## 1
Amino acid sequence: MSEPKAQKILVVDDESDVTELVAYHLKAKGYQVETINNPNSSIGLARSFLPDLVILDVMMPDLNGIQICRMLRADPKLKRIPIIFLTAKAEQADRIAGLETGADDYVAKPFSTKELVLRAQAILRRASEGAPSAERRLQVGQIVLDVDCHEVSINGVALELTATEFKLLHLLMERRGRVQTREHLLINVWNYETEIETRTVDTHVRRLREKLGAEADWIETIRGVGYRMAERKSEACSI
């Protein structure tokens, strides 16, 4: 019986000491790793390597991480690949911009390699694991979520969601009518058991609502607590 193929990770950072350090620790965990220090060549490498995850520095010359993230999300072959941003610790704006652009997570520099590896493992796990729900097709209003096909549509028109957005929407639809705290969402969507900024949740919910368009009102904001999928359209409003 052949062993399963190692998951592939692409590390993009203009500092060679960073890519070498990250690659060393990821390879030690059994991942297949490619690194690149020239951001201008990163999209070409991503197309040929087709990674399962991209770890991407924000502050790089010529082509920064935000721009590369947008290019990845616009490419039909690469748009579903999860992305972790490496950001300068003081640059909160970079972290928020990265999440709004389509990144799934961020790790602040200077970072712990152990933390980065754990974040990578969590994202790869949730991207590959099957959904636990016995109900394989969920519908709220005109939103239809097909678990087996990993697709979401509104009025028959498919939506382009990242793996994190899909899992977030799935959890809210599956637990419709029940309030999900930000902490609960961090544990069940992001697989985090340690403290992290709950603004990560707010940013992803805002981005998900934008993609849902006219159906966005189904997601209620429970101020100071979290979110829930409304039971009835008339209830679907921020409170």
Note: The chain has two domains: 8-128, 137-235.
## 2
Amino acid sequence: MLVRLTVENFALFERCDVELAAGLNALTGETGAGKSLLLDALECILGGRASTDLIRQGADTSLVEAFFTIGDSALISTLEAVLGVPLPDGEIILRRRLSRSGRFSAEANGRAIPVSTLRQAGDVLVDIHGQNEHQRLVQPAVQLDMLDAFGGSGKERSSYAAAYDGLRDSVAEVSRIEAERDSLEKEKDFLAHRVRELEAAALKSDDELDALLSRRQMAANHQQIVDVVTELHRRVYYDDDSMTAAIERLAVKLSRLEGVSKDLDRWKALLEEASVTLAEAGREAGALAASMERSQNDLERIDDRIAVLKSLCRKYAPTLGGCRETLRREKERLDGLGSLGVRLEDAAKAAAAARKALLEADSRLSKERHAAAGKLTKKVEAELHALGMREARFRIDFTVLTELSSPQDVKDASPAGLEICDFMLMPNPGEGWAPLGKIASGGEVARAMLALKTVLAGADKTPVLVFDEIDADIGGRLGEAVGRKLRAISSAHQVIVVTHLPQIAAFAQRQFRVEKSSRAGRTVAAVEAVAGKERLAELAEMLRGREKAKEALEQAEKMLAAARDL
């Protein structure tokens, strides 16, 4: 419920705090006193119109603040998701500031939020009916929700929603596979070319290029290397004064001195090791020299291979390892093209089954809805007649969104069904049918809404309902009927009504008088709760004007007594 509405420097209001009751609240006062301005402030805090024109003359800023308490856990969760702020104990304070500089701000529980978010929260919290068209119930989607709630179609609605999600997922899978297939078909030749080129290169290892570069370096210095290793091989083995022969001679001489000195024995051992090492070096030098002679024509072949490998690295990956991975991946994609046909066929079968399931779920849901529509039509028409619209007609029109001829048609469906509905009204014979949102008369719309709210009171979860212009073109007798309806609705919702009829105001649990006065040459609007004798006097004034005759006071007292008996 809306616990408190605070307004500062807003239009004619300098400062007012309105503490509202949980049931029916009536705003009364003379025409032009500021009742509609108070509703403008309420709409402003709900994300409605805001401009510098609303700031009171002489002030630089204006503030509107609303304090709500919410008892419904589902509604609390919805608001927390919308606002992005926690609601401890279900309490929420919305605040909106206007500045002459044009800088407007909005807050929820002290945290800044966009005005669009404020508007979303307002749509959940408050439903305003009347001259400032802030009406959720004229929206077809909301009407469908109300109809399902009235008909108790929650189970069928949930089954449909699950089937709808299933079909959307199936269609998305078909589209994904088709897109993958089409993409691969377009790339098929390109992929095949890449695979052929990589396979033709016959990549041996990840380090093949490094090995070739090393070989190329040796091939480029072929003659120098051959000269060095040939000389080494010759000096080790074949020269008259070869290193091997010299070492052997020294070793013989040291053998003759064996046991003479430990140092001499160690030198002999070192010479023997040197002889072995030198012999190994000689053999390797000989082998390398022979190899170099055989590969002296390899430079061109090595350069060609290096060019091929570097080209692959430029085209496919920075390294040969990356090129080999590219080959694996591209071959896998080409191989997958053959399996996509099977996958697509399976996905299409799943989508067809999901379409069938959705049609069956929608059929059950539609049957429930049409049955509920017939019952709701009769009840609403009865309420309209009781509210003075004796020849008004009400009906619910259904429009099919899609026949769902194919699974892909799910794009035209709604998460709530394959059809939408419109609440249609013919206020007077011969005027023609029109959706509620297109009815020109604010009073007729307000009464139609009241009739709907009366019937749908248990189904509508909006905590606060506001009615303006609901008493347009009706007299006292009908006003009493409207008052009783509002009082009945207030058992399930907090209701705020702006009225000039005492027959309506008398049914309120709390009544507020809005009036203007002059103060220091300035017009100021004020709101005060009236109770006891003050309320009796206010009702009497609404009956007879400022002349509070005894009969008017007595009649006002009877009205209040009748309301207390409810």
Note: Residues 207-318 form one domain.
## 3
Amino acid sequence: MSHTKFKDRLRDMQSAYYEWMQEAIINYRFWSLDQWDPEARRALAAEGRPALTFDRTRPILQAIIGSQITNRYQATLQPREASLNRPDRFIAQSGTTVMKWAQQVGDYEQSESLAFQDTLVTGVGALDMMISFDTDPDGRIDLIRIPWGMIGWDPASTQPNMLDAQYCIHMKWVDKEEALNSFGEDEAEHLLGLMTADDNTTPAIREGRMPYGIFSKSDLPAYNRRRDQVLLFEEQCFERYYSTRIIAPDVEENRAQVEQAVRDGSTIPRVEMFADKSVATGVVKRLAARIQSMNYALSGTPSGPIPAPTYLENFPRKVYYKSIHTNSEELKRDAMPHRMFTKLFITAFEDWSKEEVRSFMGPERQMRDPQQYSNKFLSQAVHIFTANPKGALLYEKRLFSDVAKAGKQWAMATGMIEANDGMLSNPRMKEPFRHLTTTASLRGIETLLGLAVSATPASVGISEAAFLGQAQDIRRISGEALSSLLGQQNKTQTIPMDSLRLYRKQMGRLLFSFVQEYFDEETLLRILDPEKDALFLQSFKDEQLLDEYDVIVEEAPTSPNEKQQTFQLFMETGFLTQLMQSGIPIPPALADFFPIPAEAAAQFKEVLQGAFDIQKLGMELQKMQMQQQMQQPPAPPPGAAPPQEGAAPPPEQGAPPPPQGQPPVM
């Protein structure tokens, strides 16, 4: 792809999502408690009113982020065959262990929570998966949150999480030394020239009006940290090809393994290849000839023949590419080994307010107007309470010498008002003034203030009493009822939660692809058992391995919420007590569900493992003794003569006696 096409895509993206970026900037200002317009602040200052911010949006969003932490989901591999004894089930268990280990080493939870925060505030969160050798010489798979505004995507995308996007562009500042070491000498000279430029951004970006990120004019190049950095654009895209897909036994590279599999009756190794239509026929004929020759040589084996190759013409195929661009040229372009983008998105609610472009919005945008109304009403109520604390006053003309001065004194919080001498004690003026209280009006203000405060969580369908645990009655609700109530509250955020679940499924497939591409057997032996996980260590480099498994996203069994519910179920049902009374050994894996510190759980697990092994050994000994007793002949009844050598065996029970006068059949 030419650099011109990249620039066209960048301009289209900037034009399509200009208004989305405006909304994102306002939403993150709200998140940072900057919730007043400059004009409103100046108007309040002129009137002597405070610009108060009583934020309700951030606690609600933090509660939603916390719910995805306590109910964290993880991606697992599941074989498409349901048999418990099949080898692929053990391979799936080993693969799940490797993915879980990679997530823990890479500290994915922090990056995912930050990206989910971007989803709730701006409508879109993004992450980047990469291989890093900074902390581990064998390589570590990192998952990095991409700051909002530093990445753009295909405006023609219509599916959640940009699943159908044809391209995405990531703008990033790269250290000079890293950039120079990543490219050749010609590109290095060009990069050094960019380092001396005053503004190293594209003309399309200079025309932009946004003060942030990929949509900005210069992305604040005056920062000191940018002086030794260069601005690069990483584009990922795919191109679709139509070719012939051939699936055949691997008789070319692994002929010996195929022959051994035929003799053993095990699964025959296969290979998948793609070829142009012009050469596909010849490839199929060559493979068929070799398979026929091997079938003739193995005709004496008890298993069936080697199957013929299968093929599918005009098979659609995506090839993914990654290219690096500067302002004026393309530096590098390579095909990616993964069958998906390494940039992962999490989207919130769709925004169809613009007819031509679909964008996204988060719950922050829903709460913005109620929050502004709440701030303004709170500021007005405080001004009323402080500036007019005494209600209205009816007075006679001669009571005050200076009415304007008396009005100011009446409005002050001190309550001191100066009257003419003798007017309050003059018997001719029985009632020189009358004080009208404002109890009814104050009650009305309190009611409106309560509505203003509750409007913010109501705009997103969340009850703060249930979701944030602020109600007094929450302590009297049982744990089961509280879990059900919180589950109902989570349903109001179904779309972001579904997108998060979909992201974790994508992340699981991409993570397994990274393991296949960058890890070797020696690296995996740090976490796997060479005996228990031998099948996975032998086959994890197979490119078609993931096609035989499904990536399932389920709640992590060791998440805080799941551990608490499981432990509560054990206590209510007496499950552990019933196991011990029945003599059934307690599985050591149950220690992972106890809400105790990790170190205590590990020690308790070792104790359970020892008891489990002893009980299991005793059960096996009992089973062997029972089998030996069943194989021994039954003992003769007491008083019966022992059978003589050569005598006929006694007749079976229920068999007719031998006929009289005839010798018994020997």
Note: The chain is about 45% helix and 15% strand.
## 4
Amino acid sequence: MQKLFSEAMPHFAQYVPPLGSRKSYKEMAVGARRFARNSFFGSVAGVLGALGSVISNILVARFLGVEQAGVVAYSLWTAIVAGSIADLGIQATLARYLPELTAATSSGNIQGFAAALLRPLAISSAVVCGAVLTYGIWQYQDGTIAQPAELLWVITALICILQTFSGFTYGLLRGMQRFDQAALLTCTSMLCQFLAIGVGTALFGTPGALAGYACGSVLPALYAIRYMVRRAEMPSGMWARVLRFSLYTWAGTLTSTLVWSRSELFFLQHYSGSSAVGLFTVSVTLANVAAQAPLLLTAGFLPYFAQSFGRRALAEARDAYGTAVRVLGLIIFPACLGMASILPAIVPTVYGQAFEGAIPATTVLLFAAAIASVTSVGTNVLLAMDRSDMIFRVGAGLAVLAIAAGLTIIPEYGLMGAAWTRAALQTISACIGTWFVSRRLGFPLPINGLVKTFVAAMICAALSRSCLFITTGLSAIVVAIAVGLVSYITAVRALGALHPVDAARLHQLSQGLPLSISNGIHIGLRFLTAKHSRPVELT
């Protein structure tokens, strides 16, 4: 599965130099500006990708209805699973090792490294997509499917290979820290996807919708193909490390795909039909909207952690981990709990009355996402420390549980069984991962700060829900969001949920932004921390 990948609130203690070191202060300023710029553009790219997914989902739901939206969702899930098999862990490998190579080798060697990884990716993509296409043709000739279903298999295979090459491109740009190019490419691709889905769905129905999704991956796929003509060259001594990391990451991705890439759709399709698939897709999409936007702040930590471990700066990495988790909680908790409180207004307004059956499942998934997503920074720690084997082991265990639940719970309880299964697996994964990162790797979870933030978010959710008794529809959403925002800010200030050190680091990050934005952020941070203490000055 193509991971959304995420940009994190960076840690700035790494830029604090020894007293009296002019050179270190200069390096600090340059590094801070570079990290702020990369984080900004990386977040833009991630937000655009997540927003594109949501808008595309809404277009398909509005045009096709519950059942045919389920058909599209199932086809996309098939393409995602096939793409995970074809990926070979190469996207994550590019993001992991290119930052390390950038400081030690020439541009030519970096391009040779990327070209060396693209060769096996191309072969794997051809084999997997050929298998998908062969299976579809076999079913058509056997009489199992009829028109236009055989066309759906062809488009599904095309989406698979396009997404595999797109993943290579985004892994490459991430690893080379060219987040501005990734943002521009994502924006252009999403515009193409919106237009293609709208026109394709209106003219050709379900096949047109799938073709529209394929159009969204054409540009990044073409960007990757140019590396096919470059000379492949793996730096000396790296093959063993890269191979081990890639294989474990690949295996971990495959097991994670069974757990996180909506594997419940397979069992829902088999036991409950396309309508249940359509409702569950809406539930997962809305849960992702609330959780993934803040998570887009975390992927920038992978290159940062990799560099920190490379220079043995473990204390800095631990401080960065604590700050990232607290800041993520500050954003994710109100986003998830706040959305859960106003779902009765959001679902019928955005998707239509036909999708109201998705509200209970969405509520369950939002609460689970609030817990699981805030611990996701630990994944970057594991990858940076070359512990992708741990991700594989946890994923393998959860995959077994997912299959067991799919054969027992989902057939019995349908849509809600799928929701509770996904929520339970997310929570179990978060607990195991947090325990390992905390106990075995020495990165403790900042529980006290998270508890305060969670309480503030619950206050926000309760007051937002009360607004639905006053008005309905779009006006209810607007009023509830406004009331929730004001109440959450007030609660954060009263409870001291924003740690002064975190406020100082966020302010330092804002120094790389335009002056007006930086000043606005500083005023807001001072307000949030004024109840308890003034922001700590790091420099």
Note: The two ends are 42 Å apart (CA to CA).
